[in-house]
Amino acid sequence: GDPPVPAAPGRAQVFAAVVDTFLEKLVTAGSYQRFANSYRCFYRLQPEMTRSIYDQFVSQLQTSIKEEIQDVKDEGNLDVLFNSLDKMVEEAKDHKEPAWRPSGIPEEDVRSAMVPYLLKHRSYLQKVLKEKEKENRKVAESVLAGRDRIAELQQLIQARKLAWQ
Predict the structure, then answer these.
(1) Pfam families recorded for this chain (predicted)?
(2) Which residues have a Cβ under 8 Å from the Cβ of 19 and sit 6 or more positions away?
(3) Taking the CB of residue 60, how many other CB atoms lie within 10 A of it?
(4) Residue 95, exposed/middle/buried by CB under 10 A (0-12, 13-18, 19+)?
(5) What is the mean pLDDT of residues 116-127?
(6) Mean pLDDT over each residue of the chain, to the nearest integer
(7) pTM of this prediction?
(8) φ, ψ for residue 95 (rounded to 5)?
(9) Which residue has the higher pLDDT, 111 or 130?
(10) What is the 3-state secondary structure (H, E, C) of 59-91?
(11) Does the pLDDT at position 110 exceed 90?
(12) CA-CA distances (angstroms) from residue 156 to 142, 153, 159?
């Protein structure tokens, strides 16, 4: 058959790649050459020391930026959000029907959005109503049964009273 189509990279991977590219560009922009030119006097006196300071500075800068970005990802739960977005896009591919678009007539749009929800709600309320009516019938039946029992007992008491007299 056909060779498998490689899966498109997920949003989390794309984000990671963007961050890496940004860091590379940052390092390129702050090249050692520029750094050395900015501290020319110091560079002339201490070239090795200048290089070492630059390397430390760049690596600390990269680390702190990566940590900041990781904090943002953790706080915003970004990995989970990216994954669920990927999933939604994946699932949407299988939908054959066209996606909903506003018609430009607000009343129509509201109706098309609300009617299914209201119908669902109505059928739920009807179900609850039926259950309540059933419960009420049971309660009414047991009340009537109780009344009959009381009437029987009253007759029994009456009969005993008469028998005693």
Answers:
(1) Nnf1
(2) 66, 69
(3) 10
(4) exposed
(5) 92
(6) 88
(7) 0.45
(8) -70, 125
(9) 130
(10) HHHHHHHHHHHHHHHHHCCHHHHHHHHHHHHHH
(11) no
(12) 21, 5, 5
| 68: its two tokens | 């900041």
The residue whose two tokens read 């860091």 is: 23
Q: For residue range 56-98, what is the model confidence (pLDDT) as tens digits?
A: 998 998 899 989 989 988 888 888 888 898 888 888 887 777 7
Determine what percent of the chain falls in helix, strand and coil, rounding each to the nearest 5: 85, 0, 15
Secondary structure of 88-123 in HEC code, one letter for each residue? HHHHHHHCCCCCCCCCCCHHHHHHHHHHHHHHHHHH
Largest Cα–Cα distance of the chain, in whole Å? 134
CB 23 within 8 A of CB 62: yes
d(CA 102, CA 85) in angstroms, rounded, equals 22
The residue-averaged pLDDT of 18-26 equals: 89
DSSP assignments along 122-161, one per residue:
HHHHHHHHHHHHHHHHHHHHHHHHHHHHHHHHHHHHHHHH
Token couple for 146: 């109780």
Lookup: tokens for 131: 């259950």
